Amino acid sequence: MRFSALEILKQGLTGGKGWTPHWRDPAPKPQYDAIIIGGGGHGLSTAYYLAKNHGMTNIAVLEKGYLGGGNVGRNTTIVRANYMLDGNSQFYSHSLKLWEGLEQELNYNVMMSQRGMFNLFHSDGQRDAAARRGNMIRSQGDAAELLDREQVRKHLPYLNYDNIRFPIYGALYQPTAGTARHDAVAWGYARGADQRGVDLIQNCEVTGIDVENGKVTGVQTTRGAIKAAKVGMVVAGRSSQLAEMAGMRLPIESHVLQAFVTEGLKPCIDHVVTFGMGHMYMSQSDKGGLVFGGDLDYYASYAQRGNLPTKEHVMEAAMCLLPMIGKARVLRSWGGIMDMSPDGSFIMDKTHIDGLFVNTGWCYGGFKAVPASGWCMAHLMATGQPHEVAARHRLDRFETGRGILDEEATGSQHNLH
Ligand SMILES: Cc1cc2nc3c(=O)[nH]c(=O)nc-3n(C[C@H](O)[C@H](O)[C@H](O)COP(=O)(O)OP(=O)(O)OC[C@H]3O[C@@H](n4cnc5c(N)ncnc54)[C@H](O)[C@@H]3O)c2cc1C
């Protein structure tokens, strides 16, 4: 069924009894043309665009838990296109354009809110770096403005501007950045894929990858063997474990990333604010909670929960930047397992096994990538060729040394700056 104002009115007046489930709950078939492993944002968007853009509908998404139970439902929902380097900048620009039309595309309210994002800087050197990044962003068509301290103060009067260690000098502002409701994005893509015939199979863990004569032939799962000539590995923090089933060792480390939300407050923060030097960033959710996070817990782990020292660090940074937060109570904290590549940029490629594809390395920034990742991964799986905006994100860059060293560009140890 389609969502519309009229439908909501009709359902509201009839007790909401006419809503139908958003997707079917099919049993796995013995064979598909393609299988996507992982029912997170990237797996679901890949399935959606395989069906929509390439007419491949005999496909399944296999998810070991429930759809959206991984990082796609655990992130802090920030969407932006402020990368600097060739490869990344085109990709995230493409993604932001898809975000801007996503609600109409999916007929689903993903609560996309382009409320603007401030990346603060705290020294002359950082201002130079921000100006350079801003110029690069603008030169390839995205929005960026360099603001001085007083211009920032007009928008964000509540910040502590005179902290001795990190006084605020200004910010690189992206007016088109913002937030979107994370699990709605997963649900919207799931519903759209299901409507096009994709089987979304939950509680179905992949336990083995079948390879014969250098070609993938299918997967083993907790719900039996399933054959397919094309298999996409799209499992974020579990990428190394899954690839190992096919005898591959990926250049990926898995780390926990934590986030926090306070009790609901009246609207007080209208934008996204990032405090890179303090490893802290924040926005306010539509329910009123201040949603904030920090950096990785700096040890490799598959535990979906974080440690206390990182919590303390993030709280301290929040107090330093925004002393008023001390009056709010933290309601919840949680963690997700991040897939960090050595250069901090993602990997989307064929593997040496015919028909086996890999999509990983999103780390703390893969939510904003969900639309373009699905678009490009679908292109790769359907045509066998990388999409032009993801063409630099091949596995062989770690052999040649031609990494894409964007953002902090220090792999999993950017705490060492
Ligand atoms: C706290 C936190 C804050 C973040 N904040 C932001 C942000 O503000 N902006 C941003 O852009 N990004 C952010 N991210 C990063 C972003 O959430 C991730 O990069 C992105 O969601 C990863 O892709 P995914 O959605 O496909 O992953 P997931 O949702 O984790 O999907 C992978 C799926 O694979 C499944 N799976 C694993 N192994 C198997 C198996 N063997 N068989 C079957 N299924 C399997 C898992 O159960 C999981 O559902 C954040 C992440 C976290 C944790």
Q: What does this entry look like structurally?
A:
- This protein is α/β, with parallel strands linked by helices and 417 residues long.
- Helix content is 28%, strand content 26%.
- It has eleven helices and 18 strands.
- The strands form three sheets. Strands 1, 2, 8, 9, 10, 11, 17 and 18 form an eight-stranded mixed sheet that branches. Strands 5-6-4-13-14-15-12-16 form an eight-stranded mixed sheet.
- Helix 2 packs parallel to helix 7, helix 2 (41-54) packs across helix 10 and helix 3 (88-100) packs across helix 10 (370-383).
- It is globular, with a radius of gyration of 21 Å.
- Bound molecules: flavin-adenine dinucleotide.
- Residues 37-43, 62-65, 69-72, 74-78, 205-206, 234-236, 238, 242, 257-259, 293, 336, 362, 364-368 line the site of flavin-adenine dinucleotide.
Instruction: Please work out how many helical segments DSSP would assign.
Output: 11
β-strand percent reads 25-35%
Q: What ligands can be seen in this structure?
A: flavin-adenine dinucleotide
Biggest sheet features: 8 strands, mixed
Distance between the termini: 51 Å
**Could you state the order of secondary-structure elements as H and E?**
HEHEEHHEHEHEEHEEEEHEEEEHEEEHH
Q: Which structural category do the helix and sheet elements fall into?
A: alpha/beta
Radius of gyration computed on alpha carbons:
21 Å
Mean of residue pLDDT values? 95
Which shape, going by the Cα principal axes?
globular
The poorly predicted ranges are none
